[in-house]
Amino acid sequence: MNKMKKYRIIARIHVQNAFVYRANVISGLLFYTLFIFVFFNLWRAIYEGGSVSGYTHGQVVWYLIITELVVFGCRTRIVTQINEDVKTGAIAYLLNRPVHYIAYQAAAAAGQIAANLFFFGLLAAALGFLFVGPIPDFQWAGVPCMLLSGALGVALQFASMTAIGLTAFRLEDNSAVYLIFHKLVFMLGVFLPVEFLPGWLQGIAKALPFSYVAWGPAKLFVGFSWSLFLQIVPMQMLWLSVMTGLSLLMYRSGMRNLQMNGG
Amino acid sequence: MSSEAIMAENLTKRYRTRVKAEGLGAGVKALFQPMYREVDAVKGISFTVQKGEMLAFIGPNGAGKSTTIKMLTGILHPTGGSMKVLAYDPVQNRRELCAHIGTVFGQRSQLWLHLPPVDSFAMLGAIYGIDDTERRRRVDVLAQRFGLGEFLHTPVRKLSLGQRIRCEIAASFLYEPDILFLDEPTIGLDVVVKQAIRELILEWNREKGVTVFLTSHDPGDVEHICRRAMVIDHGVVVLDQPVKTLKESCLNRKVITVKFFEPRILPAMDGVQMECSEAQAVLTVDTKRRPIGEVMTAVTNAGGVADITVNDPPMEEIITEIFSAREAGT
Prior knowledge:
The complex is a heterodimer. By secondary structure, chain A is mostly helical. Chain A has one domain. Chain A has helices at residues 2-20, 22-46, 57-73, 78-88, 90-94, 101-132, 143-166, 175-190, 199-207, 211-222, 226-256. Chain A is globular. By secondary structure, chain B is of the alpha/beta class. Helix content of chain B is 36%, strand content 30%. In chain B, a hairpin with a 2-residue loop joins β11 and β12 (280-286). Classes of the chains: A mainly alpha, B alpha/beta. Chain A binds chain B through residues 2, 5-6, 8-10, 13, 16-17, 20, 90, 92-93, 95-100, 256, 258-263, and chain B through 15-17, 41, 61-67, 70, 73-77, 94-96, 98-99, 101, 103, 105, 107-108, 110, 114-115, 119, 122-129.
């Protein structure tokens, strides 16, 4: 229990810290609103003619609100932080504490993400109701499953960011890896539902981790069914395990090879 | 129970660094055929430190001091040899060990820069498993002892260097470690803060019996804090003796720099080496032969003093002297 207490307090202090930078919170909320407003209008123009790939206009706007909520909610400094820690050697100084580096980062990010989801969640709900009203045919019985999928999406994004950050042990500049991941998550789920992609690409997207960050949870929110749940959540769990395992392997190998000059 | 706090035997550390040759062609070649160079930072050192001992681990830049500290604290894995710190193997039992050791690296902050010290202390309290009531009691004691009250709630990144280092040391005392590893703890600090920090460390040693393992380029730290000095150079321990002995042979000099309003002639004094240029004089005083007070009196009696500073000779100079003395002795 004591072990968990330390990580709980780390998370709590990072929640408190998230409330300190008001300008960051406000600019993020404004940016989110602007983003949703632009796409609401874009989708309205596209949807003049009815539904697209099974999504109504209301569903697609709510879909976007939820995918962006996952993206904005996951906004932490994790990649930059791990990069800095590895490049400057500061990672070694964190080892001087009876705490696991990855678990520490996870607790800190959890605090930050909880604060983000609180702010952006309220705004997301308000914008959704304002623009298109409640989610059409919302399945209340599926709420626990939707929340589970949302949590898995956030965890998958965190584990992937951790793995990308840890590539700093091997790569001088890992920004390209981050950009590729970020763009793939955006194109294969955040911006467009996977169902909008050509058939052959849908198959590839559903086999890769990128869509399970945002498409999975958002799809369950706007069109819940048990078969969809059984299709999405096991894949989220699989990719979360892969990314977590990869992060731990990279961490262990990086720490073994850690070389720091004196001074 | 063992009286040894630290034991190192034949400890070695070899780094492998990538070598990049000059020019575009060499850069392209390195893509396919990278070249590496091996550096022996620590070459088989052996020593023991007793519990409660205050040891200065000194040497020139690149001698292997920080590498040794990082191995003893489990940050770096040694290439060879064995070590025990408080009966723990730092490689195998790093997390258990770090609950019993404190580290202060003067050149790097270990506090969370965006958080006020009070939050860092809360986080450390949780990490080290100190209950909230006890942690608050200890923070109160440390805040009083280290004079942290006024900036306990200011984010660390907004503190001055002296305030930050005080917080760093207070943070490392929070969980009452048995050994304190101090790597350049007073670097960049002014004389008053340096002295305050030295006194705090001494006090903690007297009261709690903490073992101190210190590296510093400041002879004042060695002289005021430690009782034993170990000199390392090129990864090898070249001297291990009481600070008292070192003081008699090498730490017995002070450098006085005097600026006058107009050129002055100072009287020649036995045990004082003088370099005068225009309105400035640099006096190197052998304090064994001539008390510093007498020299100061002679300087002020000359009149027209615009500025005066008293310093220890640089550590590099002292180490050079140690090497010269050793060579002369062999």
